[in-house]
UniProtKB/TrEMBL annotation:
<dbReference type="GO" id="GO:0016233">
    <property type="term" value="P:telomere capping"/>
</dbReference>
<keyword id="KW-0158">Chromosome</keyword>
<dbReference type="Pfam" id="PF02765">
    <property type="entry name" value="POT1"/>
</dbReference>
<feature type="domain" description="Telomeric single stranded DNA binding POT1/Cdc13">
    <location>
        <begin position="131"/>
        <end position="265"/>
    </location>
</feature>
<dbReference type="GO" id="GO:0032210">
    <property type="term" value="P:regulation of telomere maintenance via telomerase"/>
</dbReference>
<dbReference type="GO" id="GO:0098505">
    <property type="term" value="F:G-rich strand telomeric DNA binding"/>
</dbReference>
<dbReference type="InterPro" id="IPR011564">
    <property type="entry name" value="Telomer_end-bd_POT1/Cdc13"/>
</dbReference>
<dbReference type="InterPro" id="IPR012340">
    <property type="entry name" value="NA-bd_OB-fold"/>
</dbReference>
<dbReference type="InterPro" id="IPR028389">
    <property type="entry name" value="POT1"/>
</dbReference>
<dbReference type="GO" id="GO:0000783">
    <property type="term" value="C:nuclear telomere cap complex"/>
</dbReference>
<protein>
    <recommendedName>
        <fullName>Telomeric single stranded DNA binding POT1/Cdc13 domain-containing protein</fullName>
    </recommendedName>
</protein>
<keyword id="KW-0779">Telomere</keyword>
<dbReference type="GO" id="GO:0010521">
    <property type="term" value="F:telomerase inhibitor activity"/>
</dbReference>
<keyword id="KW-0238">DNA-binding</keyword>
Length: 543
């Protein structure tokens, strides 16, 4: 049974399955859920002893589908044969006469093997390396391909090595939440895989697969594992980056790489799950005043000031108001001849010792040309630029700490597309690089929004005065209706199509349900909006 549980893919369904609590072991009082599959008379005898344990099924019909594993040649990994299904009819005993005939014709049984049962070796002709889907990995060494969806910067371990963690997906593990983490160890940063973008392809030969906290995890060791990073260039050719002097790359490797690249474009554009260790989606710069602790951002870096320590980055994502930007940052861009976006808030990221790692990982060249994702930025206040005068009240500062990480983002990634939607552009071609920002006029960059007017009924406008948010939040009288004016800071869900939905059981009538976060000065309030009159032609067209 342990062998079956570890290697076979098994699915049991039908009528006659009973879910019961079962004692986990003789030395513990813990009980665990299990599914019991039994013959009819066994179920009846169980009910005779405990009548209220479960409802007896009127008819029994069980299907057991299984995939038998085979061991790949010269590998610890498995390949699964096509699924087979057996039913209760197949499980019934044959008639006595036929059973005797079958036993007479059957070859003598082999002596039971109570040791480790070997798997049949799969017959493989080519290629030399056998790459396993990520969902089928078992303990041992493996050769794998994966799409990079998350990574950390290399950090010095307690020993002599540097460690970097990479999360990879493929068609069998399609979401960031289900990605396989691979811990990579090398004595120097020069040997570490030079991953630049989310969406890069990485190939591992002889990566060690093991279980950690009930999840499959990879371990790349400098003495055994070999890696190859692949990405598509602007001319369509494949860039290959490795620390090995020689490596293999056959036509089958190119086919697999291009297939993964095509799949990644679709997957990363739709996947809204969060990678392991990320509790919240990246925030907008306009939401920074409400952030605490550590946050993630997806932004454009407009300027890098590395003349003095610490290095300072000016970042922008199109959200917020340009009038709220620190004028010191605006003048710094103007002094360097960098186009100042006519809309959107400017903020600053301060980096110290981590800048050396970012530079050694070859991120600097692409930093000013692509969207960037910062992870675990510390939110702080007031670290003024030397010699600058800061207005009273301070300003939010983002600090890049040892626990922070950085990676470039492709234009088709969902987080990037959401920020581009703030500008009304389907992709980030309008802000592909700073050279284009310089050549675009403010009227070309700014999208004229459609003006929407909310009509307030006279009975409310005349009889209910406008109440500031500060008074609403401190009001002891709840629940109560208020009339207020406030700026909408965010809306959830972000996808406008999900705001309006058809009523249950009626595709012709719609309801709307969403949450707004509004602000007035330093006060903030969350509002749930719900209505049954979602009959707007505009909304129906968007549905």
């Amino acid at each position: 049974m342990q062998f079956l549980k570890r290697h076979y893919k098994l699915r049991v369904k039908g009528r006659g399955l009973v879910a019961l609590e079962w004692e986990a072991g003789a030395e513990t009082e813990e009980r665990m859920q299990c599914v019991v599959v039994a013959e009819r008379n066994v179920l009846k005898k169980t009910l005779d002893r405990k009548p209220r344990l479960f409802n007896f099924p009127h008819s029994l019909h069980i299907e057991v589908a299984y995939e038998e594993p085979q061991r790949l040649p010269d590998s610890d990994q498995l390949r699964y044969l096509p699924s087979k299904t057996i039913t209760t009819r197949d499980l019934h005993s044959a008639t006595p006469a036929r059973q005797t005939l079958i036993q007479a014709q059957a070859p003598p049984r082999k002596k039971p093997n109570h040791g480790k049962r070997p798997l049949e070796v799969a017959r493989m002709t080519s290629p030399a390396y056998r790459y396993s889907p990520l969902s089928e990995l078992v303990d041992g060494f493996a050769d794998i391909y994966g799409v990079v969806v998350n990574m950390t910067l290399p950090k010095k371990t307690s020993g002599r090595d540097f460690c970097m963690t990479v999360s990879v997906t493929d068609e069998s593990c399609p979401t960031r939440a289900a990605a396989i983490q691979v811990n990579i160890f090398y004595p120097t940063i020069e040997k570490i895989p030079k991953i630049k973008f989310v969406g890069d392809i990485i190939r591992f030969h002889k990566v060690k697969i093991q279980q950690y906290q009930d999840r499959i995890q990879g371990l790349s060791l400098s003495r055994a594992t070999r890696h190859l990073v692949l990405r598509e260039k602007a001319n369509g050719s494949l860039e290959q980056v490795t620390n090995s002097d020689t490596w293999t790359f056959e036509s089958s490797d190119e086919l697999r790489t291009r297939k993964l690249l095509k799949w990644a474009r679709k997957s990363l554009a739709e996947d809204d799950t969060l990678p392991q260790g990320c509790s919240l989606a990246p925030k907008l710069l306009s939401e920074l005043k409400f952030a605490e602790g550590f946050i993630d951002l997806v932004v454009r870096v407009l300027n890098v000031d590395d003349c003095d320590e610490p290095v300072r980055l000016t970042v922008w994502d199109g959200s917020g108001s340009a009038e709220e930007s620190d004028q010191v940052l605006v003048r710094a861009l103007q002094d360097k001849g960098v186009a100042v976006p006519p809309y959107g808030l400017l903020k600053e990221v301060i980096m110290s010792s981590c800048w050396l790692v970012v530079r050694e990982m070859c991120f600097v060249d692409g930093m000013l040309k692509n969207w960037c994702r910062f992870r675990n930025l510390a939110v702080g206040v007031d670290e003024p630029i030397p010699g600058a005068v800061i207005a009273p009240g301070g300003r939010e500062i983002l600090r890049f700490r040892e626990v922070s990480s950085f990676v470039l983002m492709p234009d088709f990634a969902l987080d990037v597309r959401r920020r581009c939607s703030l500008m009304g552009t389907p992709n980030s071609s309008i802000t592909a690089n700073n050279d284009q920002l310089r050549t675009c006029s403010p009227t070309e960059n700014r999208v004229s929004p459609e003006q929407v007017v909310t009509v307030i009924p006279d009975r409310i406008r005349k009889n209910i005065p406008v109440t500031p948010l500060r008074e609403i939040l401190s009001s002891p009288q709840t629940p109560r209706k208020f009339h207020c004016w406030a700026r909408v800071r965010s809306i959830w869900p972000n996808d406008i199509e999900k705001i309006c939905k058809p009523k249950s059981g009626n595709s012709d009538e719609f309801i709307y349900s969403f949450a707004l976060t509004v602000e007035e000065g330093s006060e903030c309030l969350s509002i749930i909006v719900y209505g049954k009159d979602a009959v707007s032609q505009h909304l129906q067209q968007q549905m």
